[in-house]
Write a structure and sequence with these properties.
The chain folds into three domains: 284 residues, Neutral Protease, domain 2; 189 residues, tricorn interacting facor f3 domain (Immunoglobulin-like); 90 residues, Immunoglobulin-like (Sandwich). It contains eleven helices and 31 strands. The two termini are 49 Å apart.
């Protein structure tokens, strides 16, 4: 009954529009309602309902200067004063920066529509230039190599809307709602920063707004300062954070909490929820599984990595999905209905706290390490709750006959189904390639090695090879670095009598037009009229391959990849007597 609304006309209209515009979970819940089936080896995806998985986000050319790679921001202190009626933000950013080279200027990202009134370096006023998205600050003393400096910038203005929203002053029921979406390169619309994921820093953020508002951000709430009609909320991180994950939510929230007990039972952490008053009862129902999700991921990958802070969910007005801001996920208000309809959204965003937030991407080309991992976590969680059939059905719901592009070269399609769903399939196939126990050791080793750091696809490959003891160059080339297709396989088989039974000849032909030759382990199921069915594994290492196996009886049917481990379209050409 909880999904009954899908079947009325209004629901269908809503879903069609929702899918067409959806990004980053605009349509993942819809995927999971589709009845995907596998008949004669072919997956029948409901292509007409897929729509667009993403809104393209163009990474601006030259956004990061060479100078920016020569600094290390150690700490941000952000003082954010909000004036929603005027859509004005007044800010003061104090950056503690280590200079990694002898620089004449410190380059940062900051949109030039924000008016800068003062810039001080180590307490002394200094010259600066603001043009486009680059702020260059003059370094008066040229002998600061390897020194740490303190840069203070005072500014104000109306933040530019860009990307998937950037910084938004919204309204609901005539009450203001402030929120932001920095990913991938829009933190610079509202504060000066070194806006690349590799430069993680610590954060203290002070958010001031009308006293009717609750203001929420990353990390732990240190204090609330009341000053007449305005309140300031001070949030602090105890773990480093990338700029794209820094957030502000400020609205007429109601707050309720839950508790998570660590794996070793020695620490208790608060789980915080901030929702609009009219959705309180919905949220209490929708959010109640978070403790179970956290226990599952902590047990699978390693302890929740932000245990000194919190985990939380805050409702916001971006209606196309959710965003995994570090320790405080933003969830669109239309995802709350009290029916747990969007549980996979909450699973995905929580999983990002291991994959994306704690272990961050070395570049935006590596975003599949965020999104493919979090998408596969949906399948892992389903498997953990309901077993192998749930793993299979979740993966089939993420199948696409024609993923576009190369996984490691997403271009402007950072949030495409290739990044999310093909990324998940690559992990699923890696699990098949290495075996279950090795695969989960890989993930735990990868998490431990790059915790609170950033990692590239090549870094992940090295961990995979070290833990598995295998050369995975071909696997990574065909699925991540080079391949823009998937396996398209035609097969035929015949059974010939021999002395003690039958010799089965299985002929395989790869017919895909993109990547020439996939290598993969192929499981084959022989359906027997008498006795148990027989399963065999064959390693396919050429475009055309024939395998022979002897059986004591002729099979009634042969099924390739019966447990759906491969991203493949498989067709039976014919059966030869």
């Amino acid at each position: 009954m909880k999904r009954k609304w899908i079947y009325n006309a209004a629901g269908l209209i809503f879903i069609s529009a929702f899918i067409f515009l959806g990004w980053k979970y605009g349509l993942s819940p819809i995927y999971n309602t589709l009845n995907k089936i596998k008949e004669t080896g072919k997956l029948l995806a409901h292509q007409s309902l897929r729509g667009l998985h993403s809104l393209p986000v163009k990474l601006p050319a030259g956004y990061i200067s060479e100078n920016q790679k020569m600094i290390d921001v150690v700490h941000y202190e952000l003082n954010i004063d909000l004036y929603p009626p005027q859509k004005i933000l007044k800010g003061k950013a104090v950056l503690t920066i280590k200079l990694l080279n002898d620089l004449k200027t410190i380059d940062l990202n900051f949109h030039d529509n924000m008016k800068i009134s003062e810039v001080h370096l180590n307490g002394s006023e200094t010259d600066f230039k603001s043009e486009g998205t680059r702020l260059s600050v003059l370094v008066n003393n040229s002998n600061l190599y390897m020194d740490t400096v303190r840069l203070a910038i005072t500014y104000e203005g109306k933040p530019k809307r860009a990307g998937l929203g950037a910084f938004a002053f919204g309204q609901k029921n005539d009450k203001s709602v402030v929120y932001n979406l920095n990913e991938p390169v829009y933190a610079s619309t509202w504060f000066p920063c070194n806006d690349m994921p590799t430069d993680k820093a610590y954060l203290d953020i002070y958010i001031t707004n009308d006293s009717s508002k609750t203001s929420v951000s990353n990390g732990k709430l240190i204090e609330t300062i009341k000053d007449g009609p305005r309140n300031t909320y001070h949030w602090k991180t105890f773990y480093p954070i990338s700029t794209y994950l820094i957030c502000v939510y400020s609205a007429d929230y109601v707050n309720f909490t839950d508790k998570y007990v660590s794996q070793n039972k020695t620490d208790t952490m608060s789980i915080e929820y901030y929702v609009f008053p009219e959705h309180l009862e919905f949220a209490k129902k929708d959010f109640e599984d978070h403790t179970e999700m956290m226990e599952f991921f902590s047990g699978t990958f390693g302890e929740y990595p932000f245990l000194k802070e919190k985990y939380g969910v805050a409702e916001f007005l971006w209606q196309l999905g959710a965003m995994e801001h570090q320790t405080i996920t933003g969830i669109g208000s239309n995802f709350l209905n009290g029916r747990k309809f969007f549980n996979d959204v909450y699973v995905h965003e929580l999983a990002h706290h291991w994959w994306g937030n704690c272990v961050g991407p070395a570049s935006w080309k590596d975003i599949w390490l965020n999104e493919g991992f979090a998408t596969y976590c949906e399948a892992l969680y389903a498997e953990g709750r309901s077993g192998a059939p749930a793993l299979q059905s979740t993966m089939l719901s993420k199948y696409n006959e024609n993923f576009q592009g190369i996984l490691r070269e997403p271009g402007d399609n950072l949030f495409s189904s290739t990044v999310y769903d093909k990324g998940a399939w690559v992990l699923h196939m890696l699990r098949w390639e290495t075996g279950d126990s090795v695969f989960f050791r890989i993930l735990r080793n990868y998490f431990e090695k790059y915790k609170y750091k950033t990692a590239s696809t090549e870094d992940f490959k090295k961990v995979c090879e070290r833990v598995s003891g295998k050369d995975l160059t071909k696997f990574f080339d065909q699925w991540i670095y080079e391949g823009d297709d998937q396996i398209k396989l035609e097969y035929s088989w015949k059974a010939d009598r021999e002395k003690n039974g039958y010799r089965i000849s299985l002929e395989l032909d790869q017919i895909q037009k993109g990547y020439q030759e996939y290598n993969f382990m192929l499981e084959t199921k022989f359906d027997m009229a008498e006795g148990e069915n027989i399963y065999k594994k064959f390693y396919v290492d050429s475009r055309n391959k024939t395998f022979e196996v002897s059986l004591n009886q002729k099979p009634d049917k042969i099924t390739l990849d019966p447990n759906n481990w491969l991203l493949a379209e498989i067709r039976d050409k014919k059966s030869i007597e």
